[in-house]
Fold this sequence. Notes:
- By secondary structure, the protein is an alpha+beta fold.
- Helix content is 16%, strand content 26%.
- It contains 2 helices and 10 strands; from the N terminus they run ββββββαβββαβ.
- Strand 9, helix 2 and strand 10 form a beta-alpha-beta unit.
Amino acid sequence: WRYFRSPPGNWSTQTQRLSKHKNMLIACKSDGSRHMARAVTRLDAPFCCPCCDAAVMLKQGPVKIAHFAHFPPITCPWGDGETELHLLCKQEMFDQLAPNSRVTDLMLERPLGVVRPDVSFCLDGKQNIAIELQRSNLNEDVIQQRFAAYTKMNIALCWVVLERMPEEDIE
C-alpha cells in the first residue's frame, strides 16, 4: 500500500451527500498512529484529523455510533456528509473481515491520494482490495474517476450500493 494524505476539497466536492455531518470512525494521534473511535476513550485524547491535522473530538454514547468530529468551524472534507447508516455499514464490514485469516492489512478509510476506500485490505497476501459503500447519489463521472484511480493502483474494487428507504427521501 502507498499512503497519501488526501488533498482537501478534492474528493468530497465532487459528491453529493445526504446529510451535513462530518463524522469519521478514525482519527490520529500526534505520532501518526490511527485509532478507531470505539477503541479509545476521552482519556486517550488529544486526537487529530487524518486529513487536515486539526483537533477532533471523540463522541461516544448510547444512541449513535462512536465517532470523531471536527470542532467548528469545519473546513475539512474528511467524513463529509456520511450518514449514520454509512458509518455503521463501514464498521460492520470491517468487523466481518477482521477474523478472516486470509485478510491482512485491514483498514478503515485508508488515504490513497484521490480516493479513500471505506474499507481496504490485502487478500491472501497478493491482492489489494478496496470496498466502497455507496449510499448517496453519485454521478457516473465520479464513479468512473474512482474506478480508474483504483485500476491505476492495481487495487481490486468492490462497490456496494446501500439501499435507501423511501422515508429517507423526505427532508
